Input
Amino acid sequence: MHILTVNLGDRSYPIYLGEGLLSRTGELLKKAGSGKKVGIVSNQTVADLYLDPVQESLTRSGFRVIPIFVPEGEEHKNLKSLSDIFDRLIGERFDRSSSLIALGGGVIGDLAGFAAATFLRGIPYIQIPTTLLAQVDASVGGKTGVNHQEGKNLIGAFYQPRLVLIDLEVLRTLPRTEFVAGLAEVIKYGIIEDPQLFALLEANLEDLLSLNRGLLEKAVAASCTIKARVVEKDEHEEDYRSVLNFGHTIGHALESLTGYDQFLHGEAVAIGMAQAATISRREGLCDDKSLERILHLIKGAGLPTDLPSGIRLEELANKMEVDKKSVGGKIKFVLCAGIGKTRFHWLSAEDIIARLASIQKKVESENR
Ligand code: NAD
Ligand code: GLY
Output
């Protein structure tokens, strides 16, 4: 088992990473000093697969466990599900010594985390992420929240978990498309911070896609380490944490424009990263070789790199403007300066789509 730490003073917490850890949940929670009453927030799919080992382990360690189910899907990461969770917590007489476990992907993690952040002004919570995306990104760093009909993650709080428990074995039941979408975030860490991780992915992509144990552990550990270091530098995204948005400005706008049902988050981010890297090349920041390696790795993972044909760039621009991260009409756009280095440029949505239009024109003329 690897133990990483997110160092945030008195809110520091461990990330346990290994295989077969679900059956050690009780022991690890006890070590973290959790009270006896524990709610496990999950959905039916994940609970059918993994609730039993977690619940058994907790019961063995003397915890009283209350499973709390929310319906499956991003559309249920909303205020209604939050309110249903509160109803259960109140009904079961949860108090400030009780805690919540998020057992599932990023949807469950964000929702349960926000419930914990706000119930009784904050109770402890534990992340047990079961998708690759949640293991390398959503479970670490304390961003919690729900969607509003006007936009994703518009209601939320920064609230750190007490511990993160990553059991790599659970990835064996994850649909391949979900695994590959999670890989987009791992590739992102390589591009923004870690040439060695990037090279590891290039050299071992096939084995990683076959869920090779050692490689998975290396890739997830390296990703969590980078995320932890970024969060330690800038917990509340006042400055450097924005580096994690590489590929996300275009990716989020694309997800929103296509109604969240054409692309998984990681797929949209993959397109966003490919476009951001291409813009970086054109701005003279990124060299040809690095751009080629980035596009090759994204494609090799089975992820898309091109904007869908027929997309209306003005509509994409509108979506970028409503992004909660735009300030005074300008977006802090993350560019890459080769592999492992980034630059922030403040651009308007119009600046960004002008660059995308010029890339599209070139692609069309090459395809003619
Ligand atoms: P998800 O939570 O919707 O899970 C994807 C699907 O996989 C679901 O159907 C789920 O039931 C199923 N599943 C989960 N684990 C499984 C397993 N081990 N085996 C089989 N099926 C399994 O999707 P996601 O990609 O994990 O998370 C996306 C969400 O994460 C979005 O809401 C996004 O906003 C959020 N997110 C948050 C952060 C953050 O920092 N808080 C970062 C990135 C993404
Ligand atoms: N997923 C981006 C962040 O945590 O900041």
